[in-house]
């Protein structure tokens, strides 16, 4: 079988490495992939949002199955386009990807179907938004409606700050069209949990839970990033919480999407907050998370390609998806200055005998050298019987990876360790 994976980051590298375990796959193409994946996939220099070129490539190269990993091609309707030319895909169609593509849509869905989430109002008029804020208390959360590279969420500490954020989005076009509509929502408190789930539109099968570390610096300081590291499983996600989530969030969401004639097939990402009133949805993503995937897939014992095919053809069962009882830790190595300004083009070297999975995100090949080419450069995943063991291994092994201006957080998993020690 010929498989293509759309996207080019660490998440896609983790997907590709896991797909390689399936012996029915003869070739995996990565569009565009990155230089760090050259031993795992055939790199094709076509961008993830170049829909016409992707379809053309798929036809010419007799692709049997496509995995569409990033949000933007899903929201743009790449799965619909590929289906039209007879290519099976893992990933939701455009009308279901809107669950991530529009926060106003997802918030309204949750309200309509009683799925627990923060209280909110949606505005497409600046004056109304400002008037509403006059009667609210800070902290309060302002969200741009559309995709904004994970940056469209402002936690305002004062009402003044909230008003500035609304003006920035609605009047100054800070996030382009994504900010024409804003959601203003209640500030929730509690630990966050990421749960990725396979769903064929009938059953929803959660994968092992995980915890992201979104801030750039130790102690959750610094700017918000795409994610600086992850651990799995997330100790806040107890079996009791998992049962509540399955019954009050996961299944109701799948049923709601069916009722709206927007059946969701693929990986649905639930960003949850465990509040004192129970688990609530912070956000939905229509895809695997990055860097959650880099800890979740290494713990998956079942064959990923089989599960993806069953998700696509509507025959998924709970028994198809098995995870080991181990723990995993992923430490992201980034370029100094990320998520703001950083330099690129430094050689990446790895000492012999690296004991862990290396997932490359921002790198390119120049001759036989691998050079840094992005903010988040790579992730290293290590596993252990305990979380402590996985973390310890990670920090020992990462010393074997080098590039100029590299930085990484030194405290990935420490918050989770405190919870595990308490139990
Ligand atoms: P999102 O882009 O929706 O994942 O939001 C980014 C981050 O903002 C989340 O991971 C949370 O830490 C935080 N956040 C979003 N919504 C809320 C909320 N209603 N209350 C508190 N924190 C929030
Ligand atoms: N790690 C969060 C995301 O993928 O959106």
Written overview of the protein:
There is one protein chain. The chain is α+β, with helices and mostly antiparallel strands. The chain is built from 13 helices and 25 strands. The chain has helices at residues 10-19, 51-60, 71-76, 78-84, 94-101, 103-112, 126-134, 159-170, 239-259, 293-296, 304-313, 387-397, 414-422; strands spanning 2-7, 27-32, 42-43, 65-68, 88-90, 120-123, 140-144, 153-156, 182-186, 192-199, 204-206, 211-212, 215-217, 221-224, 229-232, 266-275, 278-285, 327-335, 349-350, 357-360, 363-366, 369-372, 376-384, 401-402, 406-407. The strands form 7 sheets. Strands 12, 15, 18, 20, 23 and 25 form a 6-stranded antiparallel sheet that branches. It has a 5-stranded parallel sheet with strand order 3-2-1-4-5, sandwiched between helices. The chain has a 4-stranded antiparallel sheet with strand order 6-9-7-8, sandwiched between helices. Strand 13 and strand 14 (221-224) form a beta hairpin. Helix 7 runs antiparallel to helix 8. It starts with a strand and ends with a helix. The model has no long low-confidence stretch (mean pLDDT 96). Glycine binds at residues 150, 212, 227, 285, 289-290, 292. Glycine (GLY) binds next to loops.
């Amino acid at each position: 079988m010929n498989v293509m994976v759309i996207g080019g980051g660490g998440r896609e590298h983790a997907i590709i490495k896991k797909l390689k375990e399936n012996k029915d796959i003869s070739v995996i193409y990565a569009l565009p992939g990155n230089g760090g994946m050259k031993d795992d996939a055939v790199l094709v220099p076509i961008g993830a949002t170049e829909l016409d070129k992707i379809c053309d490539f798929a036809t010419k190269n007799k692709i049997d199955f496509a995995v569409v990993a990033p949000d933007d091609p899903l929201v743009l309707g790449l799965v619909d386009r590929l289906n039209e030319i007879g290519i099976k895909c893992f990933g939701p169609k455009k009308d279901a990807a809107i669950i991530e593509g529009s926060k106003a849509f997802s918030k309204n869905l949750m309200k309509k179907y009683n799925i627990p989430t923060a209280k909110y109002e949606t505005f497409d008029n600046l004056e109304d938004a400002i008037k509403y804020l006059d009667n609210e208390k800070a902290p309060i959360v302002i969200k741009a409606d559309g995709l904004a590279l994970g940056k469209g969420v402002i936690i305002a500490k004062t009402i003044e700050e909230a008003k500035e954020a609304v003006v920035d989005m609605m009047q100054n076009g800070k996030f382009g069209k994504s900010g024409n509509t804003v959601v203003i929502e209640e500030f929730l408190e509690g630990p966050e949990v990421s749960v990725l789930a396979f769903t064929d539109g009938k059953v929803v099968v959660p994968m092992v839970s995980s915890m992201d570390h979104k801030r750039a610096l130790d102690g959750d300081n610094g700017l918000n990033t795409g994610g600086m590291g992850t651990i799995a499983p997330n100790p806040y996600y107890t079996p009791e919480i998992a049962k509540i989530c399955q019954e009050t969030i996961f299944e109701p969401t799948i049923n709601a999407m069916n009722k709206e004639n927007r059946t969701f097939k693929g990986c649905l990402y639930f960003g949850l907050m465990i509040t004192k009133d129970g688990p609530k949805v912070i956000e939905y993503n229509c895809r695997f998370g990055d860097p959650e995937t880099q800890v979740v897939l290494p713990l998956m014992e079942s064959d990923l390609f089989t599960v993806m095919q069953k998700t696509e053809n509507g025959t998924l069962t709970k028994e198809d998806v098995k995870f080991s009882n181990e723990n995993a830790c992923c430490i992201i190595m980034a370029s100094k200055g990320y998520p703001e300004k950083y330099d690129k083009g430094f050689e990446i070297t790895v000492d012999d005998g690296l004991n862990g999975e290396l997932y490359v995100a921002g790198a390119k090949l120049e001759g036989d050298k691998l050079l840094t080419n992005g903010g988040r450069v790579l992730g290293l995943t290590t596993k252990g019987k305990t979380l402590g063991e996985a973390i310890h291994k990670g920090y020992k092994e990462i010393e074997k990876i080098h590039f100029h201006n590299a930085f990484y957080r030194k405290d990935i998993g420490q918050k989770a360790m405190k919870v595990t020690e308490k139990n």
